[in-house]
Design brief:
nine-stranded mixed beta sheet, about 20% strand, 2 domains, three-stranded antiparallel beta sheet
Length: about 260
């Protein structure tokens, strides 16, 4: 039988599967011995008999150990591979339950933090689907104008989304002004040529790398990403309803707009 010191990694593994260190040690020793009395287990594990009895009772409740009606009483453990399989199944059930509860909690709180003051609102929107959904909601609610700056690679990555969106806003009569940042020698694909015929859409290009990407709706609200690019999945960002801060972002946009060149000369 292996020396107790050799059980170190095995005990860590079983602990990760939900057993306590003492339960792990007793189970491993008993699995190697096939069957043993409390006295023997106490000697082999160097653990007092009361603690061994308590641990054995817990392992019985987990269906990892069974008691044989001998005199003195003898205990037998499941084979190690069967015990591990049982613990894995139990762990998977627990994970499934926790995952379901976590999803319920996410839906309940909508994964955002909102700070509201007089006439102002600041919402931190985490990345991924929430950012995508929030951007779509804001775009869809635009009534007069939309201004923003975006990386060319992000525009290409979400081409279907943006083409559909810009066409829809154009039909609503929303004035759109977009600046596209292109890396050196980078070019926008020809699929976006269709936008040159859409009323109210102006698109310019720049080689000056922006500090961030953002969208401004109706001059009243702005979404600023926490990273320069949108990326996949979309980065988190700050949604701002504050006239002073929106004004600052809009001034920055105007400076970039004047320095940029028309994409469709």
């Amino acid at each position: 039988m292996r020396a107790q010191v050799e059980y170190g990694e095995d005990i860590q593994t079983l602990t990760g599967l939900g057993l306590t260190p003492c339960q792990s040690k007793i189970f491993l020793i008993l699995s190697q011995m096939e069957k043993a009395t409390l006295k023997t287990l106490s000697l082999m594990s160097k653990t007092d008999r009361a603690n061994v009895y308590r641990t054995i009772t817990q392992l019985q409740e987990l269906n990892l150990v069974e008691k044989l009606l001998n005199n003195p009483t003898v205990f037998r453990a499941l084979p190690t591979n069967e015990g591990i399989r049982l613990l894995l199944e139990r762990k998977e059930r627990e994970y499934t339950e926790v995952k379901a509860k976590a999803k319920e909690l996410l839906n309940k709180h909508r994964d955002k933090i909102t700070i509201t003051e007089e006439g102002s609102q600041f919402t931190l929107v985490p990345g991924g689907k929430l950012t995508y959904r929030k951007l779509f909601e804001m775009f869809d609610s635009s009534e007069k104008s939309h201004e923003g700056i975006i990386y060319c690679k992000d525009l290409e990555q979400f081409a279907g989304f943006f083409l559909n969106l810009f066409g829809k806003l154009s039909l609503k009569g929303v004035k759109i002004r977009i600046i596209i940042f292109l890396e050196k020698e980078e070019k926008l694909s020809t699929k976006f040529q269709i936008l040159r015929n859409c009323a109210g859409i102006e698109i310019r290009k720049t080689r000056t790398r922006p500090q961030t990407t953002f969208s401004i709706w109706d001059g009243k609200k702005v979404f600023v990403t926490v990273e320069p690019t949108i990326s996949q999945p979309m980065n988190s960002g700050l949604l701002v309803y504050n006239s002073a801060l929106v004004g600052l972002v809009q001034e920055y946009f105007y400076i970039l707009w004047r320095r940029s060149k028309s994409l469709f000369p």
